[in-house]
Amino acid sequence: MHLNSILALSIGVFRISAQQLASDPGVHGPPLEVAHIYNDQFPSGITVSATGRMFSNYPPALDANNTRYNVAELTSGNTETPYPNLDINSPPGGFVNYTTSPPTGANFPNYLISVSSVVIDAKDRLWILDTGRALPTNGSLVLATFGGPKLICVDLSTNAVIQTIIFPTTVAYPDSYLNDVRFDLRSTITASGLGVAYITDSSSEGRNGLVTVDLGTSTSWRHLDSHPSVRGQPQFAPSIWGEFSYAISGGSLSYGSTASGADGIALSADGATLFWTAVGSAYLHSIPTSLLRAHESPFAELLAQAGVVSNGQKGTSDGLETDSNGLIYAGNFGQNAIDVFNPANGTATVFVRDPRIGWTDSFCVAADGGLYFMENQLWRTKGHWPGTERRVRPYAVVFRVPLPGDGTKVMLM
User: Fold this and answer.
1) Which one, of 88, 141, 89, 150, lies nearest residue 117 by Cα?
2) For residues 342 and 360, what is the distance between their CA atoms, to the nearest angstrom?
3) Residue range 36-67, pLDDT digits in tens
4) What percent of the chain has pLDDT over 90?
5) What is the Cα–Cα distance from 115 to 105, expressed in whole angstroms?
């Protein structure tokens, strides 16, 4: 080849390589603010009070090393204090009852066993959802017993427990996993006048469903048991940070799909609709809340099943949350993103992207106009293939981003 031809070819290659080629920018939306870094126990939830106090939960069901406390107040940028006190976080004999065969979750109604969610309601009270199931060191999640699964209310002004609702075994089955909760405190929706709570049962082993609780009478009931909308899709495997996430199947080192059912939950801004999603699915479903509150008619379950709406796909996510503009926020594992679903037009769009976003476990819309969300490397725990510890310290971080359109916390009361 002549020298001139070689030079011309080299110049052409240089010009092509120097051009700006299309690529994924990797970031979008407002920058993330670091609200808290976790250097001690492994958290899953975040909630923020009207005055800016922050709380998290640390379920022994997700990490057997979560032995010192189930709930804590975040007291600085990277420290936590057991809440509402150390005693309630320290059940006698621990979270697991080894006197039964096989071992079961401890059945203490006045102690925290394995808290799956913490949420502050419109009256600025902290609610603690205890699933009652803990993970022993052998890695096999124990079944719950009566007294373990419960919903506890704490008055933030006195730091005292003011209500405890124990779930009967017909509502919280031994293999249930009561996961997340939302509150509607409007006095007109129940005869008791004190509002309701809606809870997801995300169990990987049992019957997924939705639980409704009358906060005035402490009664509770289920709807949509094993309905397709509350179950994960067969053979579902999400992708996070370029890795496909497979669950450990049956406690053995074999590949399994992500079987977790109804998990993330959110109420519409007017309280008329409940939204939920399964981790083992990319779909967002909803139902009129009036159908969930109805339970005395023999037709209540049939009407609830008929009222389920599929809102299409919004990416794979765990937690959900709503702002005062009626927008539904959800993680998107495969896109390093937080997406927003607009019920007014049925579309999902990207709100924020950042390489630090992966498994977004939970959300909180706060009165300060911020969206707080938990990133905790959940897919790198021993419960996911290859069954080894792959988390990198710090295990988790809470980020904050300002909400669009002057959005703020929904106040259903």
Assistant:
1) 150
2) 19
3) 999 999 999 999 999 999 999 999 999 999 99
4) 84
5) 12
pTM reported for the whole predicted model: 0.94
Contact between 131 and 104 (Cβ < 8 Å): no
In eight-state DSSP terms, residue 230 is G
Average pLDDT, the chain: 93
- From residue 341, give the alpha-carbon distance in Å to each of 264, 268, 314, 327, 399: 14, 11, 7, 6, 20
For 188-203, give the secondary structure using H, E and C.
CCCCCCCCEEEEEECC
110-114, 140-144, 192-196, 256-260: segment of lowest average pLDDT? 256-260
CA distances from 263 to 197, 199, 277 (A): 15, 9, 6
Residue identified by tokens 């069901």 is 61
DSSP alpha helices (H): ranges in 239-298?
289-293
CA distance 105 to 200: 19
φ, ψ at 250 (rounded to 5°): 60, 25
The answer to whether residues 341 and 276 touch, using CB atoms and an 8 Å cutoff, is no
